[in-house]
Design a protein that fits this description.
Blueprint lengths: L2 H11 L12 E4 L8 E5 L4 H10 L3 E4 L16 H12 L2 E4 L2 H4 L5 H8 L3 E8 L4 E9 L3 H10 L13 E9 L16 E13 L3 H11 L6 E6 L8 E13 H12 L5 E3 L5 E7 L8 H6 L4 E4 L20 E4 L2 H5 L1 H13 L4 E4 L13
Parallel strand pairs: 2-3, 2-15, 3-4, 12-13, 13-14
Antiparallel strand pairs: 1-4, 5-10, 6-8, 6-9, 7-8, 10-12, 11-14
């Protein structure tokens, strides 16, 4: 097995095309053709994680947070980021990150966090916008099944929990082959009219090229007629955050204890009334405050995320100063630590024979003092 095999499994799960525009994901250090038999998974890349990889003989490290996030001016042994790249190179260890593309994946980071907190029936909190297209294919009826199968296999036609979704209508296709054409139907120089079907299916933008290749391979025509256009539909399988319900409603103090204990948080910061009952819960691992409006619109009683700065707490209040929902900052590391297990479990399930370890390190440098 080589590094690119591992990356292909990760990309099929959380395609790099669905990452945030600002993000840097995928292979950041190393050789995609390098042999790999052992992988170490961590939330962050730290000197202790690199040392651990060396000690256990891992040839690849996969983290959630990318090391190379901003442009790097130098790679030296005295630079905090550069020194890690230097150490990886000396040790022959490759390194990859799977960040906002995993945040946006159905069943990704926030879904794992929701499950950790006992939230059931989780759905996407804030679906991705502007990432869907419609592929329309015109073909003879005899080829329709093969083309529909190609669409499905390439990732098109998936809507929420349904796959192989398409629509087919009938019509007449007309064309005149030139003398240089090699038509599957018709004769050079003659106008041809053929009973055809129109097959259409939705596809996320990062899969469009793969879908077009698959359709052309399955299509009998030398030059198939294919239309691709953007649609305004929100994605149904990709988005940030998750929202669901607890089995039973509980008072806010009990809910806060639930969050603290489940995440191993030393302390929580929150806004909310202690007599509020919490049933519908929204979550977003990491810095998810931008999805607070979605949590409010979605009728959440509580929203668990992290990195809430002072003035942003007021956004959980209405114009009269009453809380619209309980806003809970449980810590960036604490809300995303489950990602290590999430990634490791996925690799184990899809790459038999690959040894996968979760780091023994608590990669966050921050601690809390409870007195």
């Amino acid at each position: 097995m080589i590094v690119s095999d591992v990356l292909s499994v990760l990309d099929a799960w959380a395609p790099q095309g669905q990452k945030a525009d600002f993000d840097r994901v995928g292979l950041q250090v190393g050789d995609p053709s390098a042999e790999v038999s052992r992988v170490l998974v961590a939330l962050d890349l730290t000197p202790a994680v690199v040392l651990e990889a060396e000690e256990i003989g891992a040839q690849l490290i996969v983290t959630h947070h990318p090391l190379l996030f901003k442009p790097v001016g130098r790679v030296t042994a005295t630079d905090p980021i550069g020194s890690l790249v230097w150490r990886l190179g000396r040790a022959g260890v490759s390194y990859a990150a799977i960040h906002t593309n995993l945040d946006a994946a159905h069943g990704g980071v926030s879904f794992a966090l929701a499950e950790q907190l006992g939230v059931t029936g989780a759905e996407i909190l804030s679906p991705l916008e502007g990432v869907m297209q419609k592929v329309v294919v015109f073909a003879p009826a005899a080829a329709a099944n093969a083309i529909r199968e190609a669409l499905t296999a390439s990732g098109a036609g998936q809507i929420a929990e349904y796959d192989a979704c398409s629509f087919t209508s009938t019509g007449t296709g007309r064309f005149r082959p030139s003398e240089d054409a090699n038509p599957a139907l018709g004769t050079a120089g003659d106008l041809e009219a053929v009973d055809e079907v129109r097959i259409e299916a939705v596809v996320p933008t990062w899969s469009t090229s793969r879908t077009l290749r698959a359709v052309r391979k399955a299509h009998p025509y030398e030059e198939p007629a294919i239309d691709v256009y953007d649609i305004k539909n929100a994605a149904t399988r990709q988005g940030y955050g998750a929202v669901g319900v607890l089995e039973d409603a509980e008072p806010l103090p009990r809910f806060l204890a639930r969050v603290r204990d489940a995440l191993g948080a030393g302390a929580l910061r929150y806004v909310g009334s202690d007599d509020a009952m919490i049933h519908r819960v929204a979550v977003c691992g990491g810095s998810g405050l931008s999805f607070l409006p979605a949590a409010i619109r979605g009728g959440a009683d509580a929203f668990v995320t992290s990195d809430v700065t002072y003035h942003r707490w007021f956004e959980a209040l209405d114009h009269g100063g009453e809380t619209r929902l309980a806003l809970v900052d449980a810590g960036h590391y604490e809300t995303e630590a489950i990602t290590e297990t999430l990634i490791a479990d996925h690799l184990r399930a899809h790459l038999g024979g690959l040894e996968v370890d979760v780091t023994r390190q608590r990669t966050s440098p921050m601690r809390t003092f409870a007195g």
